[in-house]
Design a protein that fits this description.
By secondary structure, the chain is α/β, with parallel strands linked by helices. The chain is about 35% helix and about 25% strand.
């Protein structure tokens, strides 16, 4: 993308790990021709003398954030009331997402809202209704849909070039976040490993295969495995954990077995995505960009398209899909509590 446009003016609410990640991605996108400019960042805990945010599970590069033209505020209202802001990234704690997103839409701004949008599906639905009644975009920040290797996995699943999927197995294992420790320890606010970490795999499974007929989850609030039941796919599972020792690091893997081949992804390998077929293993080259970078560029593209009168095929369904995923996660939580299979309505 190299076309010249008036820069999309960005405000970021919340400047912890994810807020800083969004900021870096916007500035990198701008350097690569996606014209945008961060005008303001709001965070009540912002400390101008401390520019080193908490580290997340996945490295986001070593570039430094240029704050020379960014205004910092203690209160989100400074961004919501600013008519010179076109797009707001909401990177605050989960229990503030919906109200801030609705306020931003009401203020005439496009919204990129971090996951999970909310723990309760009814709250996600409130935002879906607000987004449907707005002429602005509201996009959930589900970065795995934009992760280069996972986009290729999704495309291979959709194309059927390797035959039908027989098995899809996902692993996402780490330790509970050390940043905002009180928030993440409070299951009622963060949703725990189910909503904060495991949600990535639940969302990607929904993205690839649609809504399952039923789920069965076993484990507890720190380590769980879910079996997703589909009529036409024999085996789909996802394991998520926050109980790993720090020494083992973060693990993100998936193995997709087709009728004619097997795809294998491991973020900790140099050759992250391998295709195993006819007893041969082939490395599938992917972009070095992260899903965070790609989701920011996707959002900027969607806003450009909308301003040019174009409508994305996914524009109106983005928050509705987040609502469906919230329902699946709610069923997984119920299954954990009852240790029984939970049916999902179509």
């Amino acid at each position: 993308m190299t076309q010249q446009h008036t820069p999309i003016r960005v405000g970021i609410i919340g400047f912890g790990f994810m807020g800083h990640t969004h900021a870096l991605a916007y500035q990198q996108a701008n350097r690569n021709g996606y014209q945008c400019a961060i005008r303001s960042i709001a965070d009540p805990n912002y400390n101008a003398s401390d520019q080193s945010p908490s580290l997340g599970n996945i490295a986001t590069g070593e570039q430094e954030l240029d704050t020379s033209s960014i205004q910092f505020h203690q209160n989100a209202d400074a961004i919501l009331s600013d008519h010179n802001i076109d797009l707001v990234s909401i990177c605050t704690h989960t229990d503030t997402h919906v109200e801030l997103a609705i306020a931003a839409l009401d203020a005439g701004k496009h919204v990129l809202v971090e996951k999970p949008i909310a723990i309760n599906p009814n709250d996600v639905q409130r935002l879906a209704i607000a987004a449907d009644n707005s002429d602005r975009l509201c996009i959930p920040a589900m970065c795995m849909r934009h992760w280069p290797a996972w986009k290729q996995i999704n495309e291979l699943i959709s194309s059927n070039t390797l035959g039908k999927v027989r098995s899809a197995v996902f692993h996402r294992l780490g330790s509970r976040p050390s940043w905002a420790a009180d928030f993440y320890a409070d299951q009622t606010r963060s949703g725990g490993v189910l909503h904060d970490l495991h949600i990535h795999d639940t969302d990607f499974i929904y993205h690839c295969f649609g809504k399952p007929d039923a789920v069965f989850s076993t484990g507890d609030q720190l380590h769980l495995t879910t079996v997703y039941s589909y009529k036409d796919i024999p085996h789909v599972t996802a394991q998520g954990a926050w109980d790993q020792d720090l020494g083992i690091g973060f693990q993100m893997k998936c193995t997709i077995t087709f009728e004619q081949a097997t795809l294998d992804f491991d973020i900790n390998r140099d050759q992250q995505l391998l295709l195993h077929q006819n007893s041969k293993s082939t490395h599938i080259q992917t972009s070095a960009r992260t899903g965070y970078d790609n989701e920011i560029r996707y959002t900027l593209d969607q806003i450009r398209n909308k301003s040019n009168g174009m409508k994305s095929t996914r524009e109106s369904s983005a928050i509705e899909e987040a609502y469906q995923v919230a329902q699946i996660l709610q069923a997984e939580r119920k299954s954990l509590q009852t240790q029984s299979q939970v049916q999902l309505s179509s």
